[in-house]
Amino acid sequence: MRIAGQTALVTGGGSGLGAATARALAERDARVTVLDLNSEKGELLARDIGGIFVRCDVSDPQSATEAFARSREGHGAPTILVNCAGIGTAARVVGRDGPMSLEAFERVVRVNLIGTFNMIRLATAEMSLAEPQSGGSRGVIVSTASVAAFEGQIGQAAYAASKGGIAALTLPVARELARFGIRVLTIAPGLFNTPLLAELPEETKAAIASAIPFPARLGEPDEFAALVIAMIENDYLNGETVRLDGGVRLQPK
């Protein structure tokens, strides 16, 4: 799909992987809607790239429905959706204070997995009604899993389960939406220099990076964005989860 002139929505677009992706899409002349809970960061980025910002809780059906409506008013129906919104929590199934809070587990799954599916169902409902573009394409969905989906570490039960669910969604949804000309893809990033890791001391980041075969450093958000762009532009790539991790395989802890 040629990106110029397309309408793209990026969840979690106010910072990190989402912000880099929103910028990359805007640089290629897409009409970008930045979706995030952080209004300050989201509005600042949207102004900077010439897009629009909509505050959105991806796990809330009403909030997401309203976000699509506002984006449609400003930019038209969506043709690209990039799901970057997500949260994490570190908790053992059984810790010093007893079993992990079920509410904490549920919250991570609700935001990461259910939130991703919520945005997919709403975006594709609109995409499926559009006139097909060249080659019969009507849209592209790119979601964000994690290498934790495959090698979740101790304390990552909720996060790994949510990201594993995103990876597992990819092929069946791609198969279902093929008849509409909508491609569905997922990226499983490894250890990236996002705002969360950026706050760590340099020596801690160096220790984390030393476990990565090559290049032995944290990934940069622009590298994630570059893969999103390649996925959108390559019409023969569909139903796949691609690791972006420098060859790292997470150890138990």
UniProtKB/TrEMBL annotation:
Q: Which Gene3D superfamilies match?
A: NAD(P)-binding Rossmann-like Domain
Q: Which UniProt keywords apply?
A: Oxidoreductase
Superkingdom, according to UniProt?
Answer: Bacteria
Pfam families attached here?
Answer: adh_short
**Protein family (similarity comment):** Belongs to the short-chain dehydrogenases/reductases (SDR) family.
Designated name of the protein: 3-hydroxyacyl-CoA dehydrogenase
